Hints:
Elements: H1 2-14, H2 35-46, H3 98-106, E1 110-115, H4 124-134, E2 140-145, H5 157-179, E3 189-191, H6 201-217
Parallel strand pairs: 1-2, 2-3
Amino acid sequence: AIRSSILTRLREVCGIATNSDIPLVVELDGRGKHLDEFIKDIKLFLGSEENTVSPIIDRARICGNLLADWMVSTTKMVLIDSEGIGHNLKESNATLSHWHYQYFAEADGIILVDKASTPFTGGALNALKNLIESGYFPKTFIGFTRLDEVESSDCTRTKQIKTVKAGVKNAEAALQSEYQDDDLKLNNITYIGDLHNQIDIESQNEIVKLLDAIILTIKLPSQNFMRQNMTSPRLKIL
């Protein structure tokens, strides 16, 4: 019954007739659609909400002009969202898969994403150890999301970041002790919040800072990822 329900929903999402075979590859053409409409269509395949078919999707490739309107329209990048790790306590000691390392070898930068409300309490710390031991730490960047969920004394962004940094310092000290390296520092850190709402200027600047930092690590000329008419100054690497 479950399999039948999944297949029925998959046919609905893909627009496939009831008696037709389900193809291994499905293409979704977004040409002529508004970006918001295209993203809504994509969420039927990749969203985390109920009735999406994401649990049975192996891989997805999305290409096109998907940039936010506050970024330069000529900006080009390839963003790979790889398999997650540490989504529950059972995975906290899990190691990265060979797929991760294949992507790492090809990438200009590796972004380790963790929740700001619980920094390095799940699989992120172990993933960081794997990156250190495999030699990929120099091109690793840390992105803390959900900053708005961090509890602090007055819930200002500055206080919330200070709270997260306390957890970062603890992780840094643990890594320095384990690897006997006092020079091991967690510096390339981005703090982003309220992504489920209209992204604020501080988070926009954090994303720009992250892109600039990646450009600097591969020794290419930095470019202005923010549109020229933005009123706030463009932030640089930490």
